[in-house]
Structures are given as C-alpha cells and as structure tokens.
C-alpha cells in the first residue's frame, strides 16, 4: 500500500497529503513565526519531501496563505454572511466571530506573520486580494445591498465605503493590539457605523 508521500509524487494533489502539509504549516508558523518557518521544517514534520511542497506551492508565502485560509475558512469558497433580517445583529455576529478568531494565539501569530509578508511581497498581496479579500468584500457588499433594498440603508450609500466603515475599525484595533477589541466594542462599532449609513432610510 503506498504511503501518503508516495501517493503525492505526481502532479495531481493527494487531498490527505495536502491537508497534512497545510495543517503542519499552520502549526509551524504559529509556533515559530513566519520568519523562522522554512519549507524544510514543514516537510520534515509533515513527513513529505520538500520537492512535493515546492511543486504545489512555489513560495513560503503561498504556502502560509493557503494554510491560513484552510484554518480560517475550511475547504471551498467563503459562505454567505447571515441574513436574519436584522442587519445590526448579523454584522455584529460576523465581527464577534472575527474577534474570537483574532483572540486565538495560534491564529493571531500566523495571521500577523502573513500580514507582514504581504506588505513586503506584491505577488503575495495580489494573491491575498484575489483569494480572500475581494471575495469577502463581495459577500459584505451583497449583504449591505440587500439591506438597501429593504430600506435599512440609504440607497445612495457607496457600498465599498460602507464595508470599510464597518469592518476596518476591527482590523485596525487588532493590528494595534488595542485592548477594546471585545464583543462590546464590536457592537458599538456596528451601531455607530449603521447610524451614519442609514441616512434618510
């Protein structure tokens, strides 16, 4: 019976091997940080040849991006934002879940390392925008667009600006390690942002 390493020697990805590599990558970057992570360390811990990793992920940044996406979103495309009819509660629930994810020390360290790498690596930044940022922004715009359609937001609101007004403060507080990154702080952010965006609605 072939081992996981042997099964992945062709061009086609073996799902079990891929999952093991990404899980190991996340563990290594959470433990050692992005700067100290190497393909060799990941390969050794995952029990695969480093050539297998390089064949599937050409750079360390691409590997860590996939590992973070896998841990955060799981396989497949991001799911839609909740729509219970209560816009404030729906957005608050999404941001509270984000805060809880940020509070996980392993995820926090992995994401901070990836964020720093994105700043320095334009290609990695482009991949991040295409694979995570823009798909998520579209889900957020879609939820706000539905709110416009039922009169919860002013019809003239620029939805891209609205996304920034609602979600960017949480990212800024996380970046700055602010102490007010709490569910109560998130609720206040959403409440004040929506108060301004409601306008004549």
UniProtKB/TrEMBL annotation:
Q: Which InterPro entries match?
A: Homeodomain-like_sf, HTH-type_TetR-like_transc_reg, HTH_TetR, Tet_transcr_reg_TetR-rel_C_sf, TetR_C
User: Which residues mediate DNA binding here?
Assistant: 38-57
The answer to whether keyword Ligase applies is: no
Pfam families referenced in this protein's UniProt entry, alphabetically:
TetR_C_11, TetR_N
- Which residue range or ranges hold the HTH tetR-type domain? 15-75
Which superkingdom does the taxonomy of this entry point to?
A: Bacteria
Which UniProt keywords are given for this protein, alphabetically ordered? DNA-binding, Transcription, Transcription regulation
Presence of the UniProt keyword Transcription in the record: yes
Name listed for the protein in its UniProt record: AcrR family transcriptional regulator
List the taxonomic lineage: Bacteria, Bacillati, Actinomycetota, Actinomycetes, Micrococcales
